[in-house]
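agent> fetching stored inputs for the glycinamide ribonucleotide docking request
agent> found them:
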Amino acid sequence: MKKKKLKFQVKLNGKKIKTCVFISGAGSNLRSLINCSRDYNFPIKIALIISNKANAKGLLIAKKYHIKHKFISSLDKKKFERNCLMELKKNQIKFLCLAGFMKVLSKNFINSFRYKIINIHPSLLPKYKGLNTHKRVLKNKEIYSGCAVHYVTTSLDSGKIIAKKKILIDKNETEKSLGIKVLNQEHILYPQSIISIFK
Ligand code: GAR
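agent> prediction call returned; pasting tokens
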């Protein structure tokens, strides 16, 4: 079986695509995806949620919505990825969304999971890859910031961009206010991007 050819070839066939969401924290993007996925016409069904943090608030959201969820420790990255791949296979997951998942996935993981992986990032990629985006954006006195959804590849925040949303930075913007503004846009952009992928 040719691994590369299988990638990106999930067909809808009238059915929702079994999706897993990886989280590490609050899970507000997860909540937005769950809400959208309850719509009959939304292309994905969230069948599994994996957190690499035991105390991630997002796990409570998963519990509230009665969605299968797991904490898998990422202290040992190899073991974490091996366990995740097992769960993804066991649950017949065919699409993976990273939503505030703060760990970089290895080349081996990305190549082993034969389906699409996407991520949302709180900046106008390719600008401000990595952490502390809002702080760096404000320090550089940018006029605009925003968020981007992109395919996950082996280099950090660098895969093909699916969609971006730009917002204007106010004169007295703080890291906190910018974070809230960007996050609100993420909740709209992420579901929109998923719809566009499976159109
Ligand atoms: C979001 O702003 C997301 O873009 C960011 O973490 C936040 C998670 O919020 N992700 C990254 O920085 C990944 N590089 P949430 O847990 O409320 O969805």
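agent> quick read of the result: The mean pLDDT is 94.
agent> awaiting further instructions
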